[in-house]
Amino acid sequence: MRYLMTPDQIPSAWFNVAPHLPEPLSPPLHPGTGEPVGPDDLAPLFPMALIGQEMSADPWIDIPGEVLDILQLWRPTPLVRARRLEQALDTPARIYFKDESVSPAGSHKPNTAVAQTFYNKAEGIGRIATETGAGQWGSALAFACQLFGLECFVYMVAASYHQKPYRRVMMETWGGQVVASPSDLTQAGKAVLARDPDTGGSLGIAISEAVEDAATHPDTHYSLGSVLNHVLLHQTVIGLEARKQLEQAGEGLPDVILGSCGGGSNLAGLALPFVPDCAGARSGGPRLVAVEPSSCPTLTEGRFEYDFGDEAGMTPKILMYTLGHEFIPPPIHAGGLRYHGDAPIICNLVKNGWMEAVAYPQGKVFEAALQFARTEGTIPAPETAHAIRGAIDEALAAKEAGEERVILFNYSGHGLLDLAAYDAFLHGQLADV
Amino acid sequence: MRYLMTPDQIPSAWFNVAPHLPEPLSPPLHPGTGEPVGPDDLAPLFPMALIGQEMSADPWIDIPGEVLDILQLWRPTPLVRARRLEQALDTPARIYFKDESVSPAGSHKPNTAVAQTFYNKAEGIGRIATETGAGQWGSALAFACQLFGLECFVYMVAASYHQKPYRRVMMETWGGQVVASPSDLTQAGKAVLARDPDTGGSLGIAISEAVEDAATHPDTHYSLGSVLNHVLLHQTVIGLEARKQLEQAGEGLPDVILGSCGGGSNLAGLALPFVPDCAGARSGGPRLVAVEPSSCPTLTEGRFEYDFGDEAGMTPKILMYTLGHEFIPPPIHAGGLRYHGDAPIICNLVKNGWMEAVAYPQGKVFEAALQFARTEGTIPAPETAHAIRGAIDEALAAKEAGEERVILFNYSGHGLLDLAAYDAFLHGQLADV
Predict the structure, then answer these.
(1) Across the interface, which of A104, A373, A416 has its CB nearest the CB of B378?
(2) Within a 10 A sphere around the Cβ of B252, how many other Cβ atoms?
(3) Hey, of A1, A2, A3, A109, which one would you mutate to test binding to chain B, going by the most B CBs within 10 A of its CB?
(4) B329-381 per-position pLDDT tens digit
(5) Which residues of chain B have a CB within 8 Å of the CB of A420?
(6) Does B381 contact A at CB distance below 8 Å?
(7) What pLDDT, in 10s, does the model give residues A54-97?
């Protein structure tokens, strides 16, 4: 059963969780001086409107009309009750998922790409540089830039650029320019190529190139697809819509809310609007659960400390759970979850016991993905399948307990450009890390 | 702007165009005797319920509840007003499209796959054999069989099986078994392999294998994804929903209705419910337009005569426009439009002047696809891009005439598994046939 809302029911403001957090967020620190970073430090890379949102304490922030005009191409997204999955599990739980896969780029990422591009355009910026791994973020930004008429320049990790060309083609279809990183267009890229001409690149190197590009090109800013407060803010339309749709479905608050967690933005988008009600804040509210890969267990095994956001140590240091900024996870198919740290907001909630975290190996995750595809019909992204695994296990726990629990998870993206991973799983060639 | 309906608003009956056609359909003829084919001739391949629908004169046929239960996983599909495309064209026309790409398999094909699988199951059939070219039909049938618990066995044209593995993986994800055709599992396949061990296969050979499989396996039927009357019938949910959604949008009847045309099922699904109002039947009603590739110009250049449905000449002969059953079109990216004939219902309408046909070369089609992706945001299938090309040209004609026309087309599928074609187009490597 799908619960729909009409385009005029998109939330008109983003929900800012900052005033509701268990303790204030600690400031990012300058990588050189170790002093707290101020707006001026960020101004060469981001428009002031986004810097303001990054540090805002306002409980709600209005969504500009031009952003809503584009979001309504696919929003509000459906809330779906997974009845066929419930039946297959023979569980008394009611399982709902918010379907963010319906966006043109196929994931939740355009929610923030559109907003970021709007604010850049509003400040007169004509070109945005960014990095992308497998291409989810780069394709969302290329889409947004095309619709606002900005240039989009993407440094794509060379290994993905060569082995997974389809997201590169998506970016180009939307007018984006894409180069393999490391490239000879930046000093950072040239230095790496000089050392290792055949390198496959890394997300850390690609970040360095995109930041250098933005800092050295006129009219150019940098854009990031997760981790930062303003990115999570833009994703809260997900949870705000889901609250209303659960009411439509005749439900109260869910018992548990789950999302896969790489940088944390899709999980945050669904969960943050429920923080004022959550079990950590108020007894009886929903449990919030982050699901991560066992091979990159940031929240379940990382240290809570200040660390760099990138591999090369060029970004401000942020207080978060981290596996160390030089940690390189194995090449699992859920490329979007291969990040050594997590969004400070997510870490704040976990540190204070308002959010739980669980980790699964890849094999268990693909078992869940296949069960979902064979009951509900759609094929999930490997990242999304982490949340599905968590939701299935919660539904089985409810069955064990004989309780009618309400489970809500974020269906963050489809797996139509990840079919090679399914091929490996179906034919016994998936590394179970 | 998207016009949505709730799942309880799916039509409860299919629209049968037969009583409304300008002249009665001519019967299919037995390939051996040349006599009209009767129900008993078809019984080894199809369930009686579908044979009944194939020949029915009832104006409406109820949709079974179990079919509706599955259709509502994605239906009703959105009707979308393409305002951003209108603005880019600076046209006074209002352009609407029905978005059939939102199904789990990514096209309109599951509308009939679900219905056909239901009727097979109801008659106790446990296994369905079919053929597929690039894999759109095979994936839709594998999806439907998985949801009803039937086995699905797909003979996939060998060239596609090896060069385009992703739809094969989709079928396997839904539990389908897929073999490259020609295979050594049938006499037909073995004979071809004996002559030419390295052949890439063809749709004609794959049909022969699937039909032989169904005829020689117990408990097995055959299933076809287009052309036949009952297939077109199942697709009429598209047009029935679109009629109601146009009312929601404050529109009367559209001025022109377009669909891409290979076998004819997506075009028929949208257009047939408008036949009683169409210009051929009643002055002032909507024009109906079939859009086909210049390289396979069945309706625009074919002969109207009895011909075989398959390349090998094993199926009944049907009265249709045909390029000859041995015609092999060039390997354009719109694989779904590479058929030498067309559905008898579509041909009946064209022959009697109730439907027009237009053909475009591949380059003009991809220009339209790119313009659509860069304005409306989503990336269309190459097949679908034919309808988009037609709709854009209608909108430009309306601009030329200074008239506020209403244009409706079928967005039959997404292009996420066709990005290699976009890659070729963007880099000047597309053959413009």
Answers:
(1) A104
(2) 10
(3) A2
(4) 888 888 889 889 999 999 999 999 999 999 999 999 999 999 999 999 999 99
(5) 166, 169
(6) no
(7) 999 999 999 999 999 999 999 999 999 999 999 999 999 999 99
